[in-house]
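Limitations

Structures in this collection are predictions, not experimental determinations, and the ligand pose is part of the prediction. Treat each record accordingly. The example that follows, with L-homoserine as the small molecule, is included so readers can see exactly what is and is not provided: the inputs are given verbatim, and the output is the predicted complex.
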Amino acid sequence: MKEVKVGIIGFGTVGAGVAENILKNSEVVAKRTGVKLVLTRIADLDITTDRGVAVPRELLTTDAAVAIRESDIVVELVGGTTIAKKFILEAISAGKHVVTANKALLAEHGNEIFSAAQTKGVNVAFEAAVAGSIPIVKALREGLAANRVSSIAGIINGTCNFILSTMRDTGRSFDDVLKEAQRLGYAEADPTFDIEGTDSAHKLMLLSAIAFGVPVDMTKVHIEGITHLEAKDIKFAEELGYRIKLLGITKYTDYGIELRVHPALVPTRRLLANVEGAMNAVVVKGDAAESSLYYGKGAGSEPTGSAVVADLIDIARTAEVAVSERPRMPTTTHNPKAKSFADFGDTVCSYYLRIPVEDKPGVLAEIARILADNKISIESLIQKEAPLEDASTEIILLTHSTREADIQRAIRTMQQLANVRGAIVLLRKEELQ
Ligand code: HSE
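Predicted complex:
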């Protein structure tokens, strides 16, 4: 039986999940795969806190270099983009394979890390970095390898999905539900990365790099979070037959590769619209497989640990295979003919607008004229019957597909109208057909 020595750096929630999985399932995994994973070291600055896993004390060390030296595969679970990068580059330089759940690090510095790994002939595997337990990296690299992928759309942040689901179910405000999410442990004490869309953007960047063979470049991702979403837009969307989800979207188009994270209206009848609570889901469209959906837990110690251990087994199985034969990492050499990323202004989308206006004759005509001048076609339109206290009301309209730059220009012009009484709310709509 092939034995593979595993060292973990970072003994937090996910580190404990990985250790637990190896200790609990290594026999059954060995029978199934012919690979026995042996936990050799766990490094963390804090080795006294009880992590809820019965790890032999002699495995614990405060020295990451020991974990690197004594392992065949190093699991980096420190997080962040500074010390984690140092450990990964040291492991690669020592000729060790690396498994990481660190989406921020790979999305920001992946080109350097993947190139170093390629030069050294080692793997950097990162299934756990995107959508936790869902094997979406493997699906893109292997299950869908025969496809030209045209688009990926995913709910890839459980915190935001929990907040949006709860806002819809209860009609409560964003701030109120965020506090509940923090109380329940879904949201961090500092939730900025999740609620501002950064975490989703990191994951999306990695999915796009794999699907389209492009180097990572976070400067090309358009990122909007959910902090400005109002309960009334969730309610109006529901009335129109849509649910609002924070989506990560990447598409291969004539004008380049789209990369965007933002709240989006999704038709209620789509499976993606019915992904609730902290769950994750990703829809991939390929020319042969057509549409396929992947659903599961995007966070948590054991779900994420499951993805890490799957990577360990994959690396162990292919470690003796020539580097050129192994699953490819997203590097500049992966697809030299790939398109570049699209300018966000060229993105084609349809839109939801909520326009606060004076309730008097001619206002709608002014708005319709501006939309027409910008080649924007209205799909449907409602005006709420009951005027607000100050004789103003709100027009809610959905547009047909149009260019982002055109809708932004139209909004700037509408915003100048004397009869428009406040900030126009813009949300994007994804039919996901
Ligand atoms: N904080 C993330 C989420 C999980 O809420 O989905 C780790 O990326």
